[in-house]
């Protein structure tokens, strides 16, 4: 399997759906999410989270350039490994610690939401293109390691918010350090794979989505868990 070639660009004037417009749509989506969760607009508003994830992934991947077997392979592996790791973690407590999912992420199989694999896929791709942007031309070891660290750093922000709003809960009510070690153990091979398969991939919307995730959870952390 050969790595994909560098992303090709399409003149913005020839496309109605441009990266700035897509980023604006995502920014509005996440702003509405913050307002809807914090007010709250409706007690079940947060149950729209799976829809948010699907729209985010769809918008991000609509700007992927160079579709081919490497990308499809990565997306499949990211979903299967991410979901499989969470399933193993929920059932055994050996990977991330003792935790259980609530109803926010939608339908579950053996206690594990089907959408959690989409979350791993989304964060893996977004952090991968961000690492490519930050370390252009560096080896896949550097870029993959950086994107894995970015994913774990984001999880540090996500965890207390997720507990506060019922995404999942931890045994004893405390987030174990084991969780972050488990995240790194799963994220690192996935992101090394992404970096190897996509050495020149650029996606402005993916980069923006990563920072929108940071902003979304940081705002909820400050305003919603105080």
Automatic annotation (TrEMBL):
PANTHER family: SLL0814 PROTEIN (PTHR39419:SF1)
Keyword Transmembrane helix tagged: yes
Name the UniProt record assigns to this protein: Carotenoid biosynthesis protein
Keyword Transmembrane helix applies: yes
Organism: Phaeodactylibacter luteus
Stretches that traverse the bilayer: 22-39, 45-63, 72-94, 114-135, 147-168, 180-198, 205-224
Signal sequence, renumbered to the chain: none
Coiled coil ranges: none
The entry's keywords: Membrane, Transmembrane, Transmembrane helix
One of the Pfam families matching this protein, by short name: Caroten_synth
